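User: Quick sanity check before I run a bigger batch. Here is a single chain. Can you write out its predicted 3D structure?
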Amino acid sequence: MTFLIMWLFILGPSILVADGEYESVFSGHTMRVDLFHSGTGAEEDFSVDAVLREGLWPGSRINLVDTLNLGEYMLRVFDLTTGQLVYSRGYSTIFNEWQTTNDAATGVRHTFSESIRFPYPRRAVQMTISRRDRRMSFHELFSASIDPNDPVRVRKEKSHSLPVLTLIDNGPSAEKVDIVVLGDGYSRNEMTKFRTDAKHFTDALFSVDPFKRREKDFNIWAVELESGESGIDIPDMDVWRNNALGTTYNTFGSARYVLTEDNKTVRDVASSAPYDFICILVNDTRYGGGGIYNLYATTYTGEKTVGQEWQMDYVYVHEFGHSFAGLGDEYYTSSTGYNDFYSPGVEPWEPNVTALVKGKGLKWGALATTGIEIPTPWEKAAYDSVEALRGKLDRLAPDYYEKRKPYYQAAMNILKTSTMAGRVGAFEGSGYASKGLYRPSVDCRMFSLSLVGFDPVCAAAIQRMIDFYAR
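Assistant: Done. Predicted structure follows.
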């Protein structure tokens, strides 16, 4: 198999599946492969849990091979007979984030359930999973052959009885970006709230460019899922709820980071509708959310402080920026559960974060303001001093917003009145690091907790993703 992979790389694009060949290589369905992804901070391994045939393939039938070079991992699917590369996608995982935690660093071993999806092949295929090394090059970690016609190994799709709401329907899924919205922590008598929330956050997404300009390229579906009780788990408050998707606060020890490890339930529910991307609305009132590239985004939906309801809209769009376009966090003054998320001196794969590695040029040089200084000076000292004071406040205290207000207003004023506002350069402070990492603009939806739009670099990354899926 090693020889086959090397041969594929040498031949390059000439052996890729050509436009118009979809029907000869794939059937109309979706193949889902559930995996166990295990390891510690220093090592990892994969094994196949299950192979399933799901509903119609919702993705592009033209852009089958990844050209975006995003994500920590790369899935590749080869026709086993011809050696032809027929599908690939970059993605990231909860596992690779978990590897940066204290538990992983001390040798604790953990197993996560993960799923990869691709068009259902007509013949046997070889799927491989590769991961980036420190230099951002992919190296194969796992390989498995799958016969789609094996009646024992491949489970057929199950019928779903969950109600599906159509929020936006602009045409065939193969020509659109399909988003499925799921709810967690909504009890039976809260389905009306879920419908209202699903519409509200859909409207919030399409109030921001470039999503606003490209709304016609999206389909949005919402699946009604009842939980046994209202709300989700809040471990640091010893609150445990019977929520259907298992979402929880306190992921990796961060009070506001919301993820779920119940991958198979999420995928089973999501398959009720055609989808490329998943958004999960959590019916709880603590500020929080999360987003991982090509996995899902989560958002809280019950802000309890009057006047701060806009924060939910911020979180929804911000987290979708992560899961949809692979955008990195540009902030650096808030605490996270990560240790050294980015390796020093290595250029991140995220399109909006750079280490300014010598000799490589500015990652987004084509969008930089003409003549701008690199690195770009900005009012960082003043901003950091204000954020240091805000950082001393207890975010979970009932009077947090009242105490935060003067610091928040001061920080926002620095960004709005910056001499570099509206320009594109390389501004130090990004990716959870005050030094050594840079962002494209003074402010952006990926930087400050505000309703500011996406900077030109982030907007361009979003546009590329829309173009890739809506063709």
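The chain has three domains: 2-155, 164-325, 365-450.

User: Great, the batch can go ahead then.
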